[in-house]
Amino acid sequence: MKILQVDHLSKSYGTGEAKVMALDDVSFSVDKGEFVAIIGPSGSGKSTLLHILGGVDKPTSGNVYIDGVDIYSLNESKLAIFRRRQIGLIYQFYNLIPVLNVSENITLPLELDGQMTPKTRLNEIVKTLGLSDRLKHLPNELSGGQQQRVSIGRALINNPAIVLADEPTGNLDSTNSKEIMELLKASNKKYNQTLIVITHDENIALQADRIISIHDGKIQMNEVASCERLI
Amino acid sequence: MRIRKNPEVNKLYLFFAIVLVAVISFSIYQSMYILNKYEQILYNNDAEIISSLKDNPDAEIKVIKVISGKADVNAEDGKVILSQYGVQQNDIKNLSNELYTNAFLISLPGILAFVLLLICCVYFIDKQYKRINEITAYSQRVLQKDYSLDIRENVEGDISNLKNEIYKLTVMLREQSEQQTEDNKRLATALSDVSHQLKTPMTSLFVMTDLIKQDNIPKEKKQEFMDTIQNQLERINWLVSSLLTLSKLDAQAIKMKREQHSMAELIKAALEPVLIPAELKEIDINIENIDAHFIGDFYWSREALVNILKNCIEHTNAHGKIDISFEENRLYTELRIKDNGEGISKEELKHIFKRFYKGENAGEGSVGIGLAMAKAIFLEQDGDIVCNSKENVGTEFIIKWPK
Amino acid sequence: MNVLSKLTKRHLKLNKKRTIVSIIGIALSTALIFAVSISVLSFRDLAMRAAIDSSGNFEAKFADVQLANTKYIEDNSNTKEVMYSKTLGISKLNVDAKASKQYIEVTAYDGKAFENYPCALKEGTLPKDSSEIVISENINPKTGLNYKVGDKLTLNIGTRDNAQDTTLSNVTKKIYTITGILKADYTERSYSDTFSAFTYLDKSGLNTTDTVTVGVTFKNLAAMKTSVNEMSTGANAKNIAYNNTLLTWSGYSSHDNANTFLYAIAAVVIALIIIGSVAVIYNAFAISVNERKKQFGILASVGATSKQIKKMVFQESAIMGAIGIPLGLVIGYLGMFVTFSLINGFYFFGESFNMQNANFNVIISPIILTITLVILIVTILISAYIPAKRAAKVTPLEAIRLTNDIKMSRKKLRTSRLTQKLFGIEGIIALKNLKRNRKRYRTTIFSLFISIVLFISFSTIILYAFDLSDQQLGTSDYDFAFSVGGNGLSEADQLDVINKAVKLEGAGEYWIYRSVDAEATTGLSNDYKAKFKKSASSTNTDISLNVSIVEMQDEAFANYAKEVGVDTNAFSKGGISGILVNKMINGNSFIKPVDLTANSDLNLEIISDKQTNNIKLQLAAVTDKAPVAYGYSREQVYVIVPKSSMKNLLAVDNKIDISGYMGYLKATDSATYAAKIEDLKKANTVGTLYYTDVKAMIKSMQAIKLFMSIFLYGFIVIITLIGVTNVFNTINTNIQLRRKEFAMLKSVGLTPKGFNKMLYYESIFYGLKALLYGLPVGIGLSYLMYYIFGGVGVFSFVLPWNSIIICIVAVFFIVYMTMLYAGSKIKKENIMDALVSDII
Known about the structure:
By secondary structure, chain A is an alpha/beta fold.
């Protein structure tokens, strides 16, 4: 089933001569459980696309349906709550709350809902992420890779419909990058978690089930990743 | 405080507060009104008493002093005097009916408030139960396998959270149901495949036995037929045991152990049965000399690996090469088996791990479940196996065990 | 617990310094409002007690009320207490005909009256019935009659129609027993010719038609007017007097103006404080929110609603308020307590208020407490509202994008080449930063601005007010002034007393004057003519100048003439000649009203009961130097003449009115002299000796000045402190927020010295801006003060240089110190840490 449906999405800045089309009539869909990579050079509009998918930036025209809900028909409050429960966002620069420890940062979406976090779920995620011995640490006591893992945890804790990752390995060395991608792929497989990753790195894109490439705000290619590796 | 999370409860509290304030205000107003009337009556009484004393200035002063509260008098004495005249408390006239009505009216706001609040509570509870009923109705639809509804609402509150979680349950049920259907389909397909697969050797067996029964068959031919029978029996045996394994794996009846083992040992064990066929084809097997460990089930991993290796050897030409390398990190252990055989086409690559799939270049005895079984085994260990290949260049299998 | 509350609390804890400084700001504002209200209440309390002490504890008095009608007053429902008194009459004393007080006035008080009217005993007890009496302490020294407690006093009490009558009517003889001696300060009018004595008012001894005076205190002052009307109608009492001395302080004076004035002052002051407080508190919250912009963005991206985020900000303000407000209340109370203790310790108050218990008590009324709390809570809520909205508006996008978008056009950020040449690249960066963060700095500059304005205007007020009081006190080139008053006193009598006075122990140089009023119509200068035309009182078109001809005693005159440069021989014994002091006050400056030179004649007109005399007065000299004790007037000029000239002048017309003798004296030993002249006054039987102890007056004036200064400067200091907390917070936080920037600059090669220079320039630009706004406004206000005070005294407008300089220095000092402090921490920081880190 289609967990994400994007219809004729456009985003422009400025008017008249200075008008810039960040996204130009983009349409595609993603099935539940798919791992999609969106690739493109810098300035191609992929970050803008991700922000709109995450409900964080408003499109100029077009619709985005997540799990059947037209997210831009929701008012601000409802959108915030929708985002809380259905969308997990992972950024390049981790964006953790500096005064909360690892455990608190991960359970943040649930806490906002006023819910108690089921211990088992937290433990499971923490174990998978390899953070079991760092639960009480503050972000500034963690390395870059560890911080990114915390933000993955935060994105997954609520079992959202889609997880959006914006250059999740952009700030990490190659070992950490590999680890992060493995974690993402593992959760994609294990929890059937739909995963959309923005990247400019081909190697990462090739690990996905499907690659969408964007250039100058338009979709150039949208196809299943081939296993053609250089042997 | 669970209550604070629920905006509708807050609204209720607010309404309570408003009603309370309204009631208090009204009561105060009412009391003031009555007191005012009472004051009027008292004032009237005092005036009447004073006017009767017009000709008695001394008495007038005394009475004024009492009225202004400046005199030191004892009411009890006065009551005694009054009773001498037969005047009791309820004989004092002038309390008009209006006053009595008003006194009664004071209780009115209280009653009204109570009624209002009751209505409010009833309405509120009713509303909440309606929402709960919604959920019940929804659940019933889901029980009837109607998975199309979306009960989520994106608001704050415990009931909204509940709806959210129930929706997740629905999705899970739906997926399970879909999975179930698929499984059933697969099972049906598998059974038909099985019977089909079995049919072929069975037929062959029948023919062979029939042939052997005949008298005028030369000894060499009989031997040939016996060999064929043996072959087929082996084939059936292999088929049956593989199918059994597969179904056990499907039913998750096999408990995969999670123990640490040496990679080198695993490979050694897996290579054992294939060493000879490899040698025969003069295929060069290189093993990377690294100390690595994996966490998983040794026995079953070996079984799977044997299948893979068999496959590789089968599809690699003579004088070919098989490179085995591995990598271990904190998250997983990876094993790579690369050959420079004939490769697999892009089209076929999509299907090689499917059951009973025989490639174009499949060998005779191949049933097509070796790779499927291997995949199932690795998946059961929470790992995976993927395959990269290019025609006429080679094939690479990458196996992963998670830590 | 809610994760958002946790976040708020943790954030507060982590930024301890800023939190504490903000809380201090809130506390100071609370303390100030509280302290001001305490001061007002305490001062009012003291003033009321002083009023009660001096004029009595009553609010209204009805005179000539028939006894039968008094019940309408006594029994009115709004009456708290009533006190009865009746003036029985006066009795002639057996004293010297020249004595200024010839009679004893006997007034009867009932018990309540003795309690409430000013009546303090020096010795003995109060009378308990109508046969007992207490008499004024002045009687014995003045009359030599030597009455003691226990003596019998026989009086013939009668009434007279007016003060001039020498015969009494309805005289009755009464014999009293003296039970006590009164302190006569308030009960005797020094100008009246009666001593005071009190006996007990026995109402039973009166007829119903006899009249009494009824004094009343009210239960409910707000209804006083209504009650008074009721009483007046009922008791047919038309002769009503109000104790305004007391009523003014309760806010219920019969003059509405007094009430409005008091409330107006309090309102203005509190409004000022609230403006300052709002600036501080708003700034504190605005900073906190700004710091956490990124956090709010992250929270929004994770799905926090704007309501939740707004709640966070309000929670933070609630926590800071919950700590700051009680702290402020305590500080305010303690502060006033200490201040009052110090003031009470100086005691000088007693002298200026002439009271027993002249000390300040700290008065807190629950109403004031509640109002203060409400004002502050509302202030905090208002101050938190805008930052809360801003926090909620932060979009997740802003959190994702790390840079603070510089939403300014390139034009606005341009700096001139000149700046570059003068200050180098560090200056340019400093200036651009200032331009970029205009909004952020606005509140800080505003509070600096307020402090500057307040400081300059208050200093000016103090300057002018004190200068004025100095002026009004006269040139104080003398220590004591005295004169003799009384009916029928001759020149000789007066001189007799005055001569005694100038010879007392402790006396030094002295001058004795008396004067005659005259008019000049010729020889007037154009300046004077212009001034005369302008003044509104000139209804007739004849321009005239009031001239006061002042006689000095010979010895002093000789000295004066020498000072002016004139030989006493120039004054012929037979003529009328004198020295003209040709200087007069016009507006804020002086003019020379007379257009004549020495040796010319001044034509004067002196009007007496008999006729109008035209006198030619020869001007032996024209000077602008006034003699001792004489300043310059707005209304007249002085001509100083010797005794001989005055004698000649008086000879022209024996009905010419001449004033009594006025003596001025410099004391060699003020304390001794003061005691001696007091004794002389008490013992004097010839008329009444009046004297002024200038030094004592000056001392009490200084005391009041000191007192006012303490309050005014204290007020300024605290408002400045509040401003300082503001400045500290803003600058500190802004610098912290720019850590990354600084680190980058350092990594590109900015030396510590260069870094210092940059901060230094920024603080200069910053301070300059504040001064640019503050100084002109402050100076403008002080010009306004000058204008207001100018109508009352003579000043030239002088820029309050001292305060301006102090301001400038202080502003730069504060700003620079804060920047240094904030910068010092950054200097020590590792470059890489800063570049990579997030602000906590």
